[in-house]
Protein 1
Amino acid sequence: QVQLVESGGGLVQVGVSLRLSCAASGRTSSSYAVGWFRQAPGKEREFLAAIRWSGGPYYADFVKGRFTISRDNAKNTVYLQMNSLKPEDTAVYYCALKVAAGGGYDYWGQGTQVTVSS
């Protein structure tokens, strides 16, 4: 089993930066990648970025240049740095972990709320 805990969300003003954290515990040694997703009210969940434990990151096109995913293997933590936040970034942000390259994500965190106020 793997447990994921997100943190770092909050209420911020337009244009500021925010860094979210995803702390993983449990059987993380067999994991393939960790990803970040978000879900805004009334909308479907959307993929933002992911990073492989033994490889590089990849991003959804609409966040390239504004969001950066990184990891600290020693802390079993993955970060999502979000810059120039906009009101449309308001959503619940989730991290998730997949144990293999194919298929979907196997474990999910509980989410952290990000609200961007204008």
Protein 2
Amino acid sequence: QVQLVESGGGLVQPGGSLRLSCAASGSIFSINLADWYRQAPGKQRELVAQITSGGSIKYADSVKGRFTISRDNAKNTVYLQMNSLKPEDTAVYYCMIATMNDQFLWGQGTQVTVSS
């Protein structure tokens, strides 16, 4: 069974950067849509960034100008570059990939903690 493997989370000081990666553990159809979500303690999961097969990108207002989503189609991998991190960015981050054959895959989540 194909799984999404996330990496890159950790503890960082305010103003720092992290790069999250989300890779399929096996062969999958081409990526149609890829999202990064996050969930902070006591809060609902929210969409942080999205990239489509056509290259359309959107971000939550709270991360615009600081986060960048990208994809490597050859590697079936999606990235989230996070710069100028703030304490309010602290959350578990999840990736979701929708493939061209209508598979919806979720990562296991990776913790991002922004604290001095």
